[in-house]
Structure formats: structure tokens, C-alpha cells
Amino acid sequence: MQAKITAIGSYVPEQEIGNEFFESIIETTDEWIQSRTGIKTRRFAGEEEYTSHLCLHAVKDLEDRYGISVADVDFIIVATVTPDQAMPSVASQLQDKLGLKAAGAIDISAACAGFAYGVILAQGLICAGTHKKILVFGAETLSKVTNYEDRTTCILFGDGAGVVLVEAAEKGNILAAVTGSQGDGGKDLYMSNSRRQINGQDVITDNKIHQNGRAVFKWAVNTVSEKMVELTKKAGLNLEELTWFIPHSANMRIIEALCNQTGFPIEKTLESITLYGNTSSASIPLALHRGIKEGKVHSGDRILLIGFGGGLVFAGLVIEWP
User: Fold this and answer.
1) Which of 152, 192, 200, 319 is deepest in the core (most CB within 10 A)?
2) Check: CATH 3.20.20.70 for 2-172?
3) What is the residue-level pLDDT of the chain in tens, covering all 322 positions?
């Protein structure tokens, strides 16, 4: 038995935040933000709106768009670094709210690579024969863990959720996968409210996102460009045979650098950064679903997805859209 992605849904909060919002709280301009990041707007969750709420909206979107029910789902994976609470997991809360009495549930923490990791884990569970129908979410409320006094990071982040349904099938559509980590770079992108050191170096324990942007940029471009080639080869393809490339939408400048380094056409790249900002684990499913809704992605398209971020960690997939 193989694993097949069969459906997708997404959701972003109603509150739209333009770049002018930041002009009133830090020294910046709309022009500066767009030129450095590509971001025009992002969405912020309401004061009493949390990651589990975004996930529920996303799965309802999936059900409505495909005319299906998820009542027979037997496992839930939620990739997030912004759970409602450390425990219970967001996945367990979704299991309850969705009434899935027979479903297992776990949250995973792999930052911006979380969604890709979630799909890879779902594939493993299905191929092992232990589960048949799995919901994989990438969802974040990063606005709640952003330091609005840090002008280099506060402009970046937004909130959103995406979900795919992964099912057992005779023929799957996950063609290849790759994972990896560079843990010695953990200090370059972190969020801590407990331990005061990472790899022997002091860090700030305020439960806010902290980033060494220059170090992360260099690592991301060098690592991801190399893994793009490796991943397509594992799928028995070359870059020219891919229909679409969907990297984590960290920053438009990173996406452009990846395309320049690999020679992959920017026109065949899908992103969610311009409208939704950096949504961490949600950015890839948001970009994929946006491409589908805009009529760009079609059945049979070969798509390379790759996430990269805090850990430092990365994970990628080549899929064929159903």
C-alpha cells in the first residue's frame, strides 16, 4: 500500500495587516519592507483565536471544496511551533472537536519544515499498514510570539493554516522525500521560554522569535539549492521536468536566490509570502492551495515542496498532484 495526497484546504484569519501598521510602531516604510521581503500584507489571528481554531477552519474548507467528510480519519498530525498550549496537543483538541473517536493525534515541532515532515510521517504510517487516512496540518499563530520592538523580524510573520488529506492507495503520488538537520545552527533561529543557552551560547528566554537573518539566509540558499537537485534525482527527474517549485515562503529574496542559484524559473515558483507573510509551517500548503485556486496547479503536475527553518532543519518532497 502507498500514500496519496488526495485533498487540500486552507484558512487565514480575517484581520489583514498592511505594512503601514509597522510604520506606526517602528522605524520603517512600506517600500523598505517590500524591497527587503516581498511582503505586502499578512493576516493576524484575533485575541481569542488560536492555532486550533485556524485548523478547524482549514479542514472545513477541505470538506466543503471536495464535498467529502473526514469522519473516518484515523490519525491527525499538526505541525506547529505555536500550539494553543504545550499540552494538550493541538492535534488532540482537533480530534475532540472533529469527533474522530478512533483517531491518534500528535503535534510535531519542525518550524518551517514542519508541514513537509508531517506528510513524510503520514506516508510512513500508511506504508507501514497501521493507518489509512491521515490529516496533516501546517498551522501557526506567529503574531502571538513576535517581538514588535525588533524591526528586523516583526515585519515578517503572519498567521494561517493549511491541511492535506493523505490516504492509502494502490498507487501513491509522493515520489521522493528528503530530510535533514544542522543542529549547530539552532542559535540562529529560536524561540525559548525555558533554557537560557543553545549549544553553549546565551539566548533570550522571552518566548519570542529571534533570528540571525544573515546566517539563516546563507544556510537556506546553500542547503536548499543542493537538496533541490538531490530530491529531483531521487524522484527520477531533473529540475526541468518539474511543473512547480514551492519552497517555504520565508522571504521573497531567499526564493529569488534559490532560483538564481539553481537556474529554476521564478515563473514556475509558487509562494504565499506576498499576501500572508512568513507563516512558518503553513506557508507551503497556503502557497499550494493558492496555486490551485488560481488555476495554476493541475492534475498530474509534478511539484517540489521544501521547507527549511529553525533547528536548523529541512524537509522536502516531490509529489504528483492528483
Assistant:
1) 319
2) no
3) 999 999 999 999 999 999 999 999 999 999 999 999 999 999 999 999 999 999 999 999 999 999 999 999 999 999 999 999 999 999 999 999 999 999 999 999 999 999 999 999 999 999 999 999 999 999 999 999 999 999 899 999 999 999 999 999 999 999 999 999 999 999 999 999 889 999 989 999 999 999 999 999 999 999 999 999 999 999 999 999 999 999 999 999 999 999 999 999 999 999 999 999 999 999 999 999 999 999 999 999 999 999 999 999 999 999 999 9
Compute the distance between CA of residue 213 and CA of residue 23 in angstroms, rounded to an integer: 21
Catalytic residue, chosen from 19, 173, 251, 278, is: 278
Catalytic: 131? no
Catalytic residue of the set 112, 131, 173, 289: 112
Residue spans in the chain of domains classed CATH 3.40.47.10: 2-172, 175-320
Which set of grid coordinates corresponds to residue 213?
537573518
CA 208, distance to chain mean position in Å, is 19
Is residue 48 classed as helix, strand or coil in its secondary structure? coil
Per annotation, catalytic residue among 248, 251, 259, 289: 248
Query: Does residue 248 carry a catalytic annotation?
Result: yes
Q: Is 210 a catalytic residue?
A: no
CATH class of 175-320: alpha beta
